[in-house]
Amino acid sequence: MLFLVFYFILSAVLVFQGLHLAGETTSPLGTLPEEVAQDRHASRGWGGFLMAFGAFSALIGAFGFAYPGMAPARPILFLMGLIFLALFGLWVIFLGRQAEFMGKPTMTDDHGHH
User: Given its phi and psi angles, is residue 70 left (phi above 0), alpha (psi -120 to 50 degrees) or beta?
Assistant: First the structure.
């Protein structure tokens, strides 16, 4: 029973994280400067994938109650969901936000400071 709680929580997290990521490209919250914005195409791809997989896993999990033959798929989908969430986290940390500095460097101060 405890497994099912974590299974459906993971499905909900995947759906809502994907929804947030896909929505951030069209209507950003404005909490980060534009220089560190995520790539629109990759964000939409990750967002759509996470939403689709989370919804699929929730549906398979719910159908497992009515059709016991689908219940053995839950642990596999749970493991896959954890792997996808970990890969998404690694993408966010290492590849998702690349700073693009578009300004010019400041002039050097050759007269010194006192």
Answer: alpha
For residue 26, give both structure tokens. 């069209």
Task: Count, in order, helices (H) and strands (E) of the chain.
Answer: 3, 0
Distance CA 94, CA 88 (A): 10
- Residue 107, sorted as left (phi over 0), alpha (psi -120 to 50) or beta, turns out to be beta
Beta strands in the chain (DSSP E): none
Q: Which two tokens stand for residue 20?
A: 């947030």
Tens-place pLDDT, residues 55-109: 999 999 999 999 999 899 999 999 999 999 999 988 888 876 665 566 665 666 6
DSSP state of 110: T
How far, in Å, CA of 97 to CA of 75, rounded?
A: 32
